[in-house]
């Protein structure tokens, strides 16, 4: 089964202040039959998460207002089971360490390609499927 057939029943939230990234990823995932909602700020993302559950959340690190790590901390209680990916051009040891502590499953360096996003999602979905199989087989 390919990535997009697995993503078709998932809700994806993208939080990024770069309009080009929001438009490009929303268009690309939409043409693949996936549901992606994109917003500019973490505050908008919080409002959406209060209204609706998202399975996958792609978060830019540098955002106007609340940054991506602060947003991730706040949503961890709301959506602990959601796959969370941080997108950043500022990948320092501190950022990586904090991201892992607050439940970020992967970090993607900017600039990135669609292949990078697809690879990350594929690996995380496979990892989650293996965890579910190991839990249910016990």
Q: Decide which structural class fits the backbone.
A: alpha/beta
The CATH architecture is 3-Layer(aba) Sandwich
What is the first-to-last residue Cα distance?
25 Å
CATH superfamily: Response regulator
The CATH topology is Rossmann fold
Number of domains: 1
Overall pLDDT, averaged? 92
CATH C-level: Alpha Beta
What is the spatial order of strands in the main beta sheet?
A: 2-1-3-4-5
Task: Write down how many β-strands occur, each being a DSSP E stretch of 2 or more residues.
Answer: 5
Amount of beta strand: 15-25%
Largest sheet: 5 strands, parallel
Helix share of residues?
40-55%
Rg over CA atoms: 14 Å
What is the helix/strand order?
A: HEHEHEHEHEH
Instruction: Please count the helical segments.
Output: 6
The outline comes out as globular
List low-confidence stretches.
none
């Amino acid at each position: 089964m390919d990535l997009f057939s697995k993503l078709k029943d998932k809700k994806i939230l993208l939080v990024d202040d770069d309009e080009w990234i929001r438009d490009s990823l929303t268009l690309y995932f939409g043409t693949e039959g996936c549901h992606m909602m994109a917003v500019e700020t973490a505050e908008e993302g919080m409002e959406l998460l209060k209204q609706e559950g998202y399975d996958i959340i792609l978060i830019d690190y540098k955002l106007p207002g609340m940054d991506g790590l602060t947003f991730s901390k706040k949503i961890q209680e709301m959506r602990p089971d959601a796959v969370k990916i941080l997108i950043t051009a500022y990948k320092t040891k501190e950022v990586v360490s904090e991201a892992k502590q607050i439940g970020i499953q992967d970090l993607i360096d900017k600039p990135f390609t669609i292949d990078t996003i697809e690879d990350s999602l594929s690996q995380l979905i496979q990892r989650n499927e293996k965890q579910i199989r190991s839990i249910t087989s016990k």
